[in-house]
Design goal:
Blueprint: E1 5-18, E2 22-24, E3 27-29, E4 33-35, H1 43-55, H2 61-64, H3 78-90, E5 93-103, H4 113-124, E6 131-136, E7 146-157
Parallel strand pairs: 5-6
Antiparallel strand pairs: 1-4, 1-7, 2-3, 5-7
Helix pairs in contact: 1-3
Site (Transition state stabilizer): 38, 137
GO molecular function: 2-C-methyl-D-erythritol 2,4-cyclodiphosphate synthase activity; metal ion binding
Keywords: Isoprene biosynthesis, Lyase, Metal-binding
């Protein structure tokens, strides 16, 4: 039946700033700048969280974890992902695959790709073959000195 399959799309983007730690997909990236955000700024986990929430017709990350709430200041984005995963399971869905594209000129994603994929797979309790992460350069898409991420997820009724 058609309602047994759901697709979700998530997007996030933040500017890079000196002196902040950079995390992508929950992995610390060796880079002199980090992503400026209310939480830890992990655009990959934010986009992935929104994709999961969207696929199961739940409120988005901004509604669940508003940047106006001091409780979420500096929060680890894994908390957001865990809440989205809980909601997916409560609605009776399982994750078939995850596909994420990080858009940035710097830092390069390729050296961290496998580690990020493995970390996401572990966080989501998925086989790593179900998680794809790739990097693309901006090609004029977003502001210089920023990182954006698109994620798509496919859910099926368990």
């Amino acid at each position: 039946m058609i309602e047994d399959i759901r697709i979700g799309l998530g997007f996030d983007g933040h500017r890079l700033e000196e002196g902040l730690e950079l995390k992508l997909g929950g992995v610390k990236i060796d880079y002199p700048k980090g992503l400026k955000g209310h939480s830890d700024g992990d655009v990959l986990l934010h986009a992935l969280t929104d994709a999961l929430l969207s696929a199961c017709k739940e409120p988005d990350i901004g509604q669940l974890f508003p940047d106006t709430d001091p409780m979420w200041k500096g929060a680890d984005s894994r908390v957001f992902l865990m809440e989205a995963l809980k909601r997916v399971k409560e609605k009776g869905y399982m994750i078939m695959n995850v596909d994420c594209t990080v858009v940035a000129d710097e830092p390069r994603i390729a050296p961290y790709r496998k580690l990020i994929e493995e970390n996401i797979a572990q966080l989501m309790e998925l086989d790593p073959c179900r998680v794809s992460v790739k990097g693309k350069t901006r090609e004029g898409f977003c502001k210089d000195d920023s990182v954006a991420c698109f994620c798509v997820v496919l859910l099926v009724k368990a």
